[in-house]
Amino acid sequence: MSATNATQEINAVTPRRHGRFADQVVVITGASAGVGRSTARAFAREGAKVALIARGQSGLDAARSEIESGGGHAISIALDVADPQALQDAAERVERELGPIDIWVNNAMVTVFAPVNQIGPDEFKRVTEVTYLGGVYGAMAALKRMRTRNRGTIVQVSSALAYRSIPLQSAYCGAKHALAGFVDALRCELVHEKSNIHVTAVQMPALNTPQFSWARNKLPHRPQPVPPIFQPEVAADAILYAASHKRRNVPVGAPTWLAEWGQRFIPGLLDKYLGRTAWGGQQTPEPDDHKRADNLFAPVEGNPGAHGSFDARARGSSWALWVEKHRRGLGLGALAASALGAGMWFGAKRRMRRIGRS
Predict the structure, then answer these.
(1) Residue 343: band (very low, low, confident or very high) from pLDDT cuts 50, 70, 90
(2) What is the reported pLDDT for 253?
(3) What crossing angle do the helices spanning 267-281 and 254-265 adopt, rounded to 10°?
(4) Are 83 and 327 in contact (CB under 8 A)?
């Protein structure tokens, strides 16, 4: 997305007077574009003070401007999440300038679209350092501060691909699987410590973000998210919900449900299905320009905004996420309806018995 289009995407973020995150301090990595950018806007709109972390200074400056021009409060910090000391220093600065960190959102990622035999060791290492270790280092920086107060929430932005891997993204899938293992281990340790710190993970479906315009690609055609595609605002909605509810996981969209349950019960069939369909399903008909800049080792210049190039095909809402957010009420409603139905059935049966005796 060009800088002009990103500017047209949104002009300013105006905080609500009594937002649900009023005066809370939120740190978001990968905040210059895509899900991170959309999430920063959403938290600011709900009154949070937001610390934006990413490598690209232009995107960070634009994201901060969106928040501040509407009356919100934000700072931007350019760093690489693969550098653990840089994250620790950033956390110190956030608490010095904004206050104690309430919520930390690990969102930064990079990927490579290519078969395994076309990905170099340095590329595997880089994806792992950013997508996996970046999440670990972010959690460590957050925990160091949150433990002193025995409160706070860490939101790990995960993926349906943490449940079910697909071809052509082996490095990314491996990193997301590793993060799931790390998060589960951390949860157990916090339980042992009787800690009030909450760790939650949000599993994303295919999203319309700039990732597909700047990720390293060795396929013949431009990469695309596997449909159905959702807008990044759907992801942001899920992240804010996870940050304010004591949920262990928040799967977003029906495809994430299908990935999780399919991997549990029919993994072999999924291997065959994805081997036949996911190769073409991840590419558009348009040839890619393999000389373009990618963001694997360095940020791509410019202001990308939150949306990618698939607006015409992307959905702005998810019924499955709505169900996830209302599942307690739906469960109680179903239980009440079942009880009412059973009562009516037994009542009718008793009346029929009385009629038979008379």
Answers:
(1) very low
(2) 86
(3) 140
(4) no
pTM value?
0.89
Evaluate whether 219 touches 288 at the Cβ level (below 8 Å). yes
158 in active site: yes
Better pLDDT: 350 or 35: 35
Contact present, 316 and 253 (Cβ < 8 Å): no
Question: 211 near 110, Cβ under 8 Å?
Answer: no
Q: Is 176 a catalytic residue?
A: yes
Q: How confident is the model at residue 8 (pLDDT cuts 50, 70, 90)?
A: low
Specify the DSSP element, H or E, that contains 340: helix 327-357
- Between CA 87 and CA 326, with CA 209 as vertex, the angle to 5 degrees is 90
Q: Is 172 a catalytic residue?
A: yes
Active-site residue among 132, 137, 172, 241?
172
Q: Pick one of 3.30.70.790, 3.40.50.450, 3.40.50.720, 3.30.420.40 as the CATH number of 3-325.
A: 3.40.50.720
Per the DSSP assignment, residues forming a β-bridge with 191 are none
pLDDT band at 351 (very low <50, low <70, confident <90, very high): low
Which is the catalytic residue, given 38, 137, 165, 176? Answer: 176
Task: Look up residue 161 and give its DSSP letter.
Answer: G
Separation of alpha carbons 231 and 304, rounded Å:
15
- Collapsing DSSP to helix, strand or coil, 188 comes out as helix
Q: Answer yes or no: are the C-beta atoms of 168 and 282 closer than 8 Å.
A: yes
- Residue 346 confidence (pLDDT): 46
